[in-house]
Amino acid sequence: MKPLIGIWLASLFLNAGAAQATQISVDSFSVYFREVQEVTKEHATLWNRDIYGPILMVDPETREVYANMADEGGVLYLSEGIYRGMLPKEITISNTDAHWSGTHWAMIKLPLPPLKQDRIDLITHELFHVAQPSLGFELQREDNIHLDDKEGRIYLRLEMAALKEALLARRLAQAEEHLRNALIFRRYRQLLFRGSEISENSLELLEGLATYTGQMMSGRDKWELRNYLITRIVAFENFPSYVRAFAYETVPVYGFFLYQKDNHWNKEIDMESDLTTFFADAFGMDMRIILQRYVKQVADEYNGRAIVDEEQKRDISNNARLDLYREKFLEDPHLEIRLGEISISFDFLNVVPLDEDEGMVYFTLQISDQWGILTVDGGGALLRSDWRWVIVAEPLEIEGDRVIGEGWNIVLNEGFFIEKTITGDYMLSRKK
Predict the structure, then answer these.
(1) Would 409 be classed as within a structural domain?
(2) The domain containing residue 231 runs over which residues?
(3) 192 contact partners, CB below 8 Å, separation of at least 6
(4) 283, 302, 321 — which closes off a domain?
């Protein structure tokens, strides 16, 4: 199974303000596309190529699409210089790279951020994802559930605290000392959790480089970008989940300082690169010996004791919450759905991992499959670790092709139905 994955990025653009109306004139779309085309051409040296490509902007209310070029399948029609049409209901809408009608698109969910810098940042981030395979990055989804563990969160928060101090430092030498300390916390965290260096690296290559690319093309000058990165780190600390969010914040900060040493550092990176080792070499950190006593001593420089106290309190309440989710999705009556070739989108800031063999709970989720469309908005769904099953609480109402539960609903395709099993649970089945 190779799912089409979409991720909501809107919350990462911290200066977006109130959402603008989705009614945008055709002339405005032309302006937006032209802005991006000019920027990617100007920054073609960033990756030794112009990453401008197919862009598909989608109104989530009407499913109407506005594109900068024709699709290979010939579904879209040209009107006033913009390619327009309707996105089929089985295609989930989010900020992502998506294959549809024979074309690999940078899909953008309307409305756009009102600030030009944020618009360019968002669109070029997704254009980089479209270009990633041709740049040699064939990456797989990796979960980082250790970043919901108490120790994982502590040492990630310490890394982020050191990165913030690096950005606040008045001299480069001071900044690099904070960067080395950030890498000490990172390396110690990865020593605590076996295999985490691989899973973290994979997500940083996938999303960290895309975020760095969008920010470098955004048009922010050095000091605007510095302040923007600081603002993001402050916001990051209050995110409900770090498991998929961290890579959007770490790589851009290290990249900000690497750019000052070598404008072309990113061209040395490929899918085999170990970013932690690369950063350590660049900033002169000795990774051979990391002693716990020394790590805790360095942590005191970044309010480490307060972070530990906060995470200990969170751990107690979080364990109780995880038990409630296990009861809801694994013990109480529930609906189990077998997944095939899915299209999926979710809010990566709103996920809760259970144990590694149990999966993750998603509170904002949409899955499209041969059986229909599942939409989760608040009620939660447990997506198994292998992405072959999704579980929601028991149905409250089944009427025709519509199935409704607490905080979720399904629109079934013809030939599929919900049946109650002898165990009292429910299954989504196909008529024979």
Answers:
(1) yes
(2) 145-302
(3) 146, 151, 152, 155
(4) 302
Structure tokens at 165: 């101090």
Neighbours of 78 (CB within 10 A): 11
Side-chain-facing half-sphere of 157: CA atoms under 13 Å:
25
Are residues 352 and 209 located together in one domain of the fold? no
**Entry pTM:** 0.92
Same structural domain, 101 and 177: no
Specify the number of domains making up the chain.
3
103's enclosing H/E stretch is strand 103-109
Q: How many other CB atoms sit within 10 Å of the CB of residue 222?
A: 10
Amino acid identity, position 126: E
Question: Looking at 262, 287, 302, which one is the last position of a domain?
Answer: 302
Residue type, 253: V
Rounded CA-CA distance 315/312 in Å is 5
- 149 plus 297 within the same structural domain: yes
- CA 225 vs CA 168, 208, 228: distances in Å: 12, 16, 5
Hey, what are 360's tokens?
A: 């993750």
Cα dihedral 261/265/266/268 (nearest 10): -160
CA–CA separation, 250 vs 200, rounded Å?
Answer: 11
Residue 149 shares a structural domain with residue 91: no
Q: How far, in Å, CA of 405 to CA of 408, rounded?
A: 5
The reply to whether 150 and 120 lie within a common domain is no
End-to-end alpha carbon distance in the chain: 24
pLDDT, averaged per 10 consecutive residues of the chain (432 residues), comes to 49 45 76 97 98 97 97 97 95 93 97 96 98 89 89 98 98 97 97 95 96 98 98 94 95 98 96 96 84 94 98 95 96 97 89 91 95 94 95 96 96 96 96 86
Residue 290, classified by CB atoms within 10 Å of its CB into exposed (0-12), middle (13-18) or buried (19+), is middle
Same domain, 159 and 126: no
Q: What is the C-alpha separation between 101 and 91, in angstroms, rounded? A: 11
Token code pair at residue 150: 């108490």
Element containing residue 329 per DSSP (H, E): none
pLDDT at 432: 82
Q: Do 232 and 179 have their domain in common?
A: yes
